[in-house]
Amino acid sequence: MRPSADAVVIGGGVVGAAIAYNLLKSGMKSVVLCEKSTFASGSTGRCGAGVREQWGAEHNIRLAKASIDMFEHLAEELGYDQDIEFKQKGYLILAHTEKEWDQFKKNVELQHRLGVNSMLLTPEEAKDIVPALNTEGMLGATYNSRDGHANPFHTTRAFLQAARRLGGDICFFTEVTAIELEAGKVKRVRTSRGDISSPVLVNAAGPWAAVVAKMVGVDLPVYTQRHQILVTEPVGWFLDPMVMSFSIGIYCQQTPHGSVVMGIGDPDEPKGYDTGHSWQFLREMASIVCRLLPVLRDVRVVRQWSGLYTMTPDAHPILGKVPGVDGYYQAVGFSGHGFMLAPVVGRLLSEMILGKQPFIDISGLDLGRFERGEYMVEPSVV
Amino acid sequence: MSKRDEDIIVCRCEDVTLADIRKAIGEGATTMDEIKRITRAGMGPCQGRTCRLLVAAELSRYLGKPLEQVMPSTYRPPVKAVKLGDLADMDADPEEVRED
C-alpha cells in the first residue's frame, strides 16, 4: 500500500468500486481503496440484484435511469472478460390494494415525465408477461421493460479490475481504524496495514458508513436493518421480469443463471447488524411466493442468507460533501437500492470530487437536507 | 493453464473446471469466498459438498499454507435443498412440531 494518495475510498462494495474507477478514469493519478474484507462482502454481495427505473420519487427515477443507461454498456466500458449478467426483462410491480393502485398511477405519470416508458397493465396483460402469475385479488400492475438484473459480484469486480488497470491501489483485508483531520481538512487515514496521507476521503462503507463518518465527527441519521433472501436451484426459463409487490412486501426474479432469487420485507425486523437467517423467513417466503407463482412449489431452495439495508429517514442516499470537513465525501444510506445506483453515483461523486458540475443535479441529496427539513418521499420500497 | 485443467470438473453442480479455479486464483483470489463469487463453485444444489475441499486444496497449494489456514467460505442453510411447496405447507413452528 502506498504511503500517500490523491484520494482514499473506504469500501470495496460496488459503490466504492465505482467511485474509485471513475476518479481514475477522470484523470486522478493515485487512488487507494481500503476494504476490511474482500470485494462485495457487505451489502453488495447480499443484495437482490435488481435494477429498476420504476421509482416513485424524482431523484430515484433520474438516478436509476442514468444508471441503467450505464449498465447497458458497462462490461464493455470496463473491459471485463466475464459476464456481468445484465438482463433487461423488466420489472412487473403488482397492485393489490386501491391505495397502491392510485399511487402507481401517480408513479407512472411521474416516470413518463422523466422519460421512463413504464406502463399500467390489467391483470390479464400482466399474465401475458408472466403466464405463471396468480392474478387473484390483483387490481393491476406496472411494467417497464428496461428494468432488470445484474450480477453484483461481477459488476463490483469489473469496476475494481478496471480501477487496478488504471493504476488504482485496491487493498483488501485493510481496515480503516482512524481518520486524522488538520484544521478541518482530511489529512491522513490510518489502516490495519499502515497510514496513507490523502487530502480526499470517500466514505462508501455501506452498513458501516456511520462508523466511518464518526471518525471525522459527522453524525449520520441512518440505521441498519437485516433483510433476508433466498435462492433456488436453477430451473428452466419461466420468469422474464422481476415480480414485485410493495403491499405484500415481496420481490422475486429468475437470474440469467436460471436460479430464482427472492426476498420479503419484515416490518417487525429490529434495527441492528444481525446478518443471521431464520426458519420463519423460509416458511413465510415459501408460503407467499407459492401463492403468487404456484409453479415454484416444486423448486428447491438451496441457500438462504441476509444482508443489511442502510436506511435514511427518506429512503434516499446521502451524497456529497459535508460543510466543515474539507476533503470528506460520502455516498451512503442507499436504503436497499445501492447496487442499481452505483454506476451513476460513481460518476457523480467523481465529478464532485474533481470540482466539476455533476451531470445530474444532486444538490438536494446532501446531508444538510434533514436539518433543512427537506425530506423526500419514496413510496416504492420493499 | 493446461488443456487438462479445462477437462477437470471441480464443482459439478455449476460446471466449474480446475482451469476456472486457477484463473480466479491467478487473478488475485486468496479466499474460498472470492473463488465462490467469481466462479460459482459451491453455489449449486449440493452447496459445495463435493468441491469445497478441492477448492481449498488448490488454494492451499497456491498460497503455500496448510489446508486449515485457508479461510473457509460461509456455510448457509438449508442443509439439504428443500422444495418451496414443502416449506409452504408447514403450518407450525418447529418447536410445536417437536411437542406433538
In short:
Chain A is α/β, with parallel strands linked by helices and about 375 residues long.
Note down, in words, how this protein is organized:
- Chain A is built from ten helices and 19 strands.
- The longest helix of chain A is centred in the N-terminal third of the chain and has 16 residues.
- Chain B is mostly helical and 100 residues long.
- Chain B has a two-stranded antiparallel ribbon.
- In chain B, α2 crosses α3.
- Chain B is elongated.
- The mean pLDDT of chain B is 89.
- Classes of the chains: A alpha/beta (382), B mainly alpha (100).
- Chains A and B meet through α6, α8 and β17 of A and α3, β3 and α5 of B.
- Chain B: It comes from Candidatus Fermentithermobacillus carboniphilus.
- Chain B: Keywords: Oxidoreductase.
CATH architecture call of chain B: Orthogonal Bundle
Q: Which percent bin holds the helix content of chain A?
A: 25-40%
What's the CATH architecture name of the largest domain in chain A?
3-Layer(bba) Sandwich
Strand content of chain A: 15-25%
As laid out across the biggest beta sheet of chain B, the strand order is 1-2
